[in-house]
Structure formats: C-alpha cells, structure tokens
Amino acid sequence: MSIQFIDLKAQYQHLKADIDARIHAVLDHGQYIMGPEVKQLEEQLAAYTGARHAIGVCDGTKALLIALMALGVKAGDEVITTPFTFIATGEMIALLGAKPVFVDIDPLSYNLDPAKLEAAITPRTRAIMPVSLYGQCADFDAINAIAEKHGLPVIEDGAQSFGASQHGKRSGNLCTIGTTSFFPSKPLGCYGDGGAVFTNDDELAKKMREIRVHGQDRRYHHPVIGLNGRLDTIQAAVLLAKLPSFQDEVVARARIGARYSELLKDVARVPVLAAGNSHVYAQYTIEVDNRDAVQKALQELGIPTAVHYPIPLHLQPAFADLGQGEGSFPLAEAAGRRVMSLPMHPFLDDATQDAIVAAVKKALG
Predict the structure, then answer these.
(1) 218 and 252, same structural domain?
(2) Are residues 267 and 223 both part of a single domain?
(3) Cα→Cα distances 105→82, 130, 154, Å
(4) How many CA atoms lie within 13 A of 34 on its CB side?
(5) Which has the closest alpha carbon to 60: 136, 159, 129?
(6) What pLDDT is recorded for position 278?
(7) What pairs with residue 239 in β-bridges?
(8) Which of 269, 274, 328, 356 is the most buried (most CB within 10 A)?
C-alpha cells in the first residue's frame, strides 16, 4: 500500500471535469491577470465566510503583509503573535520594520494563549495577530475582548483554518481582518500559490484592494505604496471548481480527524477541540515521546509524517536579535519537540487510516 501524506491526485480525479473546464475557460478568454473568475471567486468566498469583503491575493504570506500594511503597521511598531507557527507570520511583521512580540501558546490548542496576551501589550503595540494553527481557530472571543479594551485591531492568520468555525462563525470572519492561504496542501488549495483577505470594514477593504495592485485606486494613480499581490485568474478558476464540494470535504476532514483521535487516544496526545470550535485538520497532529525514533519506524513501515513546526520563531536565526533564547516560551518549545503530523486529507478511507493507526501503535510499541 502506497500511502500519501496529502492526496491531491484523488481530489483532482474527483473534480477533473469541472477543474479542466474552468481552466480551459480562462485559456479561451485569455484574461490571465484579474480576469472575471477573480471577482466571481471573491463573491463566493465572502458568501462562504459571511464577511462583507473577500479579496483574492497572490498567497497567504502576502495576505498577512497586505493586512498589516492596511492597518498602517510601520517600523518601530510592535505586533503580538505566537512563536509556534510557520515563519511567514513573524516574517511579515519584521519585513515592515516592526517587532514581533511573542506570546506563548495554550498547550491544548497550540494557539496563542489569551491569558498571557494582555501582559505583552505596550504603548507601541499596533496589532494582535493570532494563528489558527493546524485547522482550529484561536480563542477569538477572549482575544477580541482584550483587543477592544486596548483599542487594537486583530488579524487572523487563518492559513490553515479556512472552513473551520467558532461559535457558528467561520474562520476569516472572526476579527478585524482575516487572512488565509490557498497553497495546494491547504484545506482549500489551488494549483500554485494563492490566498485571500477578509474584512467587514469598507475602508480597510478599499485599502487592501489598492495595496494589492501597487497602491493604485485607478490606472496609473497611486495614493499609497503597495505591492503586486494579485491572484492569478487560473488559480481563481481552480478554486471556483473546488468550492461547490468544499463543505463536503470539511465534513469529511472532521470525521476522519475524530476517527483518528478515537483510535489513537490511548497511545498518544491527540488534538483537543475547544468548546464551540470545529476543526478542518489542515494537519492531523499528535504528540509523541522520542519523535525521531517514531518517525524513523513509521518511515520503515511506509507511513509518511511531517513536523509542523520543530523550531519556534524565537529560536530561528532570523530572529536572534530579539534575544529570546531557550526557555523564553517553554510551551511552544515543548510542542516543537513533540508534535508529529500524520497523513490527512478528505479522501483518506477507513482501511488506509486503520493501516496508519496500526503502524503508529507499532512504532510507539
């Protein structure tokens, strides 16, 4: 049995006719940049999330950058975020000359711990940027309450959580600005890079649309400094073909994730779903002792695994100037030593999942 970590081929075969038709429609009309599919996708993304505005952008990293720029984050400002995430989260803060201020995680959800948030706020804090890691939203009720008290905007880094919900509201529509990624392996993925930003604020939406096209409000007129953040029409077309069946995939992900947890709960630390949350399991991530040995044993049994993420941001060489060494954020560091992600996608059948579970139990011996 050949087991895929993420099986994009199975998804393509399932949707082949629609995807091919959508791509060929773009090839026929030839509007490869900001073609009609981009606007159509934005309308459908807004309807799906419930946000007033959805703006397609070139990738999830630029989504964060555009959000920060729209809020006026600049050199010398501080933006609070988590150290337990992909580097793009902290990287975009630093790229603007601002300082990422890290807050340790809640060890159950792996997301920023709201109980530690207020202590990190200073007069230089310009925004709070929680990450909805692995496919479960951060605690936005608590985070938004603290942000409102201090007059701060909140950006959701929802690169892994599109399709997840919290108390009935979907990721992307939980705070001032939501962002997501459509990287191929994400819950909703295109066939290259892609992303989106979401907001209910008309003025912020206008700014983000302008920033996306070099700060332009009309042809060759640039009120603000922007960047090239456009979503390719072909990627929008792929996403339009995938959206009609996306909610079915969200349901399948939740079922498969819950089944994993039931089968593995006695041998490993399985994901904990917070009250009011749904989970899209962008990664199905467990905690194990002796991770290197477990991964090696699983590799020998034909089971691919991955680690998201072994080195927290404060320990990355790129952030060495922050002066936060080992022990600065012990919960993020502990998670980085223990987490391991298993194969996860909406087409994972029970027999394959049973084989993976059997191999994990054997590897944990």
Answers:
(1) no
(2) no
(3) 7, 10, 17
(4) 7
(5) 159
(6) 98
(7) none
(8) 356
- Which residue, among 137, 134, 179, 182, has the nearest Cα to 340 in the 3D structure? 134
Return d(Cα 8, Cα 13) in angstroms, integer: 9
- Same-domain status, 215 and 250: no
Is the Cβ–Cβ distance between 25 and 238 less than 8 Å? Answer: no
Beta bridge partners of 101: 80
> Which DSSP state fits 186?
S
State whether 50 and 188 are in the same domain.
Answer: yes
Helix, coil or strand: residue 199: strand
Q: Which residues of 222-236 are buried (b: 16+ CB within 10 A; e: fewer)?
A: eeeebbebbbbbbbb
Q: Are strands 165-166 and 169-170 parallel, antiparallel or unpaired?
A: antiparallel
Residue type, 58: C
Token output for 67: 């959000």
What are the tens digits of pLDDT across the range 195-235? 999 999 999 999 999 999 999 999 999 999 999 999 999 99
* Residue at 171: amino acid letter: S
Note down the domain range covering 42.
8-240
**pLDDT tens digits, one per residue of 58-102:** 999 999 999 999 999 999 999 999 999 999 999 999 999 999 999
Assigned domain for 1 exists: no
What span, in angstroms and rounded, lies between the C-alpha atoms of 183 and 282? 11
The Cα–Cα gap between 50 and 349 comes to 31
Which segments of the chain are extended strands (E)?
A: 53-57, 78-81, 99-102, 125-129, 155-157, 165-166, 169-170, 177-181, 195-199, 284-287, 339-342
88 and 199 both lie in a single domain = yes
Residue 3 within a domain: no
- The answer to whether 26 touches 168, Cβ cutoff 8 Å, is no
pLDDT of the residue at 1: 62
Same domain, 324 and 225: no
- Whether omega for the bond prior to residue 12 falls within 30 degrees of 0, making it cis, is no
Residue 340, SS3 per DSSP: strand
For 311, the token pair is 């080195």
Tell me if residue 213 falls in helix, strand or coil: strand
